[in-house]
Structures are given as structure tokens and as C-alpha cells.
Amino acid sequence: MATQNVLTPQSEDFPRWYQDVVAKAEMADNGPVRGTMVIRPYGYAIWERIQGEIDARIKEAGAQNAYFPLFIPESYLSKEAEHVEGFSPELAVVTHAGGEELTEPVVVRPTSETVIGEFMAKWIQSYRDLPLLLNQWANVVRWELRPRLFLRSSEFLWQEGHTAHATLEDAAAYAMKIHTEVYEDFLNEVLAVPTFLGIKPPRERFAGARNTMTCEGMMRDGKALQMATSHELGQNFAKAFDIYYQSEEGQAQLCYTTSWGSSTRLVGGLIMAHGDDRGLVLPPRVAPIEVIVISVRDEPGVNDACETVVSQLKAVGVRAQLDRGRGSFGRRVTDWEIKGVPLRVEVGPRDLAEGVVSVVRRDSGDKSTIGVSSVAQEVPALLARIQSDLFQRAKDHRDANTCDVASVAQAIDVAQTGFARLSWDLVGDSEEAELNAQALTIRCLQRGDGSVPESELEPDLLCIVAKAY
RNA sequence: CGGGAAGUAGCGCAGCUUGGUUAGCGCGCCUGGUUUGGGACCAGGAGGCCGCGGGUUCGAAUCCCGCCUUCCCGACCA
Q1: pLDDT at residue A3 is higher than 70
Q2: Whether complex ipTM tops 0.90
Q3: Under DSSP, is residue A182 helix (H, G, I), strand (E, B) or coil?
């Protein structure tokens, strides 16, 4: 029987394909309140793997986890002028509680610079208290105008790091450290998504920051997605919240702070960076199930062999799960493909008679047989291969769809289907407005060698222009 | 929030123009049986405030008004 489309093909309607995958892979549902999201177990399992990998890197970078309240006094937001201006339009504000009107409304945090700043001021006395390196895993609320599951929901889950330092140089170096050693490393090594690192042009900066860094990934449709961000906040928040320390010389000095975050949007990016017309394609390192072992027939000899294979895989640390045959074989295969399980092991009587099992890669569809006794040896290597092939495939796709251009007009043309890279000198205010009018944005600024500049004023910078999610 | 489209069973849709008995179809779901190497088949069955509220009418899924939600394109954004 011919395989037919279970999902809308990407080429026909990419946004529709995305929604089909989210629904059919059982990742998430819309919540009852506009813009909210119910994350289903399979989607949440992916998020938990993302959390684990990012959390380990954050701790390796020296930050500690803490937790701050969901509710923030409205007055805190107003303490930093740009910050309040940036976030006011999308705040959810609680005016009534306990059956009474509150004397001061409280906002549901859209981000936590303000509360954390308040407590940093309390906790920091001396230069010996610096740097103070904090992170929290939390939910935040931003009343978005156009929500999309995972990519932009009114409430989302994220980690937000907040640090205070004695000097600008130290703060800048730490923000960069997080950007490369946590975010870039995670995106490349775990999500298998190559990214362009750079700084945001002034107009796209975080509200209250003096510099915003970004990791921009390319989706299968050529659009950009900001996958993580790090901000140097200078002394803006330190001034607003009186974050002072006493220096070695006994002087009161203002701190320099940073903040940095990554969210459940990463799940959306993961879907769009690797997925194909058959559904999700998960890199093994984020896959809750790396290997699905399918019994072709629900009969004792086959089932016993399946269990042996699963336990051998688990013994070498592979996340393997058994699908014992209930329902048709084709149906089960299709379901696991939609869910993006990287490797499928098919165990059936014909193969077993020859002492082998069939192994099929989700990413390439390549099918091979391996001896039952060598499964535990060969599968981990195969998974590693899939991981690196997926990264390479994503990189090839990105590079093939990134073009150097010499004018804004060419950039507008190229950025319809990919990234355009051009000299930042060519883009003034009116050119930027021209791009924006075409639904294009400057995703980031880079040096010629692809490294991250310190400011937009450096000479000879390049900018990457694209449509974005 | 502006422009467009749409809300009828879990999902996808027909019916509405021209109001009229018990509102249909496909997939899915349940039961039994036969199946299982790429979305199986047969038989039986369950499941509906036709998005919400109001109006017109003897009578509304159908006509009118308001609202809500979802999707697409913008502005905002992780």
C-alpha cells in the first residue's frame, strides 16, 4: 500500500505543516485562554532534555539556580525607563485579589531583571560578593498579539540568567561566555542547529540593554528564528535598583549587570530546523526516545528478542523503548516517524532466522541489518552519526540559502527565501525602514570573520537580513 | 490591534444561497472476530447546547446584530 501524506507537505504550506506536526506528534495543544499552551507529555519530555542540557552548561559556567516570585510590584517595572516602555504593552496586571482591589497592582513577570535587581542590591555589599551569578527556571507572561504554539505563547517556560559584576569588561566577558559556551554549544551539539552569532542593531535591542547578542538559526523554509539571547545591561539596572558594592579601595561603586535567556521557543525551532514531510526529526541527543524497537509480529519468539535488544541498549545508556505489536506494523511505523524517533529497530521472524535485526534511520531513511548480538555496539555509533549528519545537513541548508549581496535591493530579493548578508555601512535608518516595510529585519551584525562585535560602531561590519518568526 | 478566512462529534469536512420531521460523510474511538515485514479488514456500536449571547419567525445550523476563539498576512516579541 502506498504511503500517503499524513501531514500537509512543507512545500505546500509550511505554517500548516508546523501545526500538523505539533498536533500529530502530540507535542502541544492550545490552552483555553488565548495564546496559552498546554504542553503534552511528549513535548514536555523534549523540553526536559533541553532543560537538562542547558542547565548543566549554565552550572558549568558558574551560575547557581534560584527562584524569584511570579508577581512583581508594578512600581518596579517603572524604575528603568526603557524597560517599562518596552514591556508595558504586553504586561498582564493583577488588580484584584482576595476579593478586593489591590492598593498597588502587581504585574505577572514578563522577565525578572527588576525583582532580581532589587535582591542583588540587598545581597551585594563588597567586591568580594562579585560576580553574583544567578539563574532561574520559570514561567513568564507576555500578552502577545499573535501567538503560535512554542514560538510565541502568552505564557512560556524559560531560563533567565542574571549576573552582577564589578567591571564592564567582566560583565561583557561573562555575557559572551554564556552566549558561546552555553547557547552556541547547546544549539550546535545538542539541537544540531548551526547558528549565526552576532549583536542586535540598536532598534532590536532588549529594553534597557546597552548591547544584545543573539543566536540566529535558519528554519527549513529559510526564515530566521532567534534561539537564545544575552544582554549586557551596563549600569542601567544597577542605577535603577541601587546595586552598589564597596571596592577594595573602600569606594561605593555601581555594578554592571547582564541577563540572558532561552525558552520553550527552542522546541519550535527544533521542529522547524529538522522536520520533514513525514514529521519531526529529532537529533538523538534531544530525543526522549532514541531508539524504538518494533516487533513486527506480536508473538513470543519475536517479543523475547525485542526485550533482549531493548535491555542491551539500555545497558549501554541508550534511551530505547519497546513497541510490542498491537495494531498494524505500518501504522506504528508512521506514528514513530511523526514523533521523530531517530532510529527504528525492526525485529521480525525472517530477520531473526538469520540472526539479525533491521535498522532504519529517521533522518535519511537508510535501512540496514545488524547482528542481534552486536546491537549494543553498533547503535550508539549510529546515533552519533545521525547527530553529526543532522548538524551537517542543517549547516549545508543554511549556507546554501545565505547569500552575500551588495545592495539593499538585492537583500530584499534574497531574503524572500533565505538570509542576505551585506555591509552594515549600506544600511541607514531609511534603508532599515525599507527592509522592515518588506517584512524583513536585521537579524544580527557580525564581523567579516563571523565573530561577534563589541558594538555596532565597529568598522566593516556585516549584517544578516531575513524574514523571521 | 488593522486586513483576510473560518468555527457543525476527538480530527477533517458537507449541509446554509432559497429557514421546515429523527443534522450527514470520511478518519479516529468502543466491542467481537480475522490480521500485523509501510497508515489492515468484516460486523456491530458510542459520540452533537451546529462557537457564545441576543434578535426576526409558527419554526433557525441556515436570516440579522454583538461577542469570543482559531488560522493566514502585518505591527509587537523569547
Answers
A1: no
A2: no
A3: helix
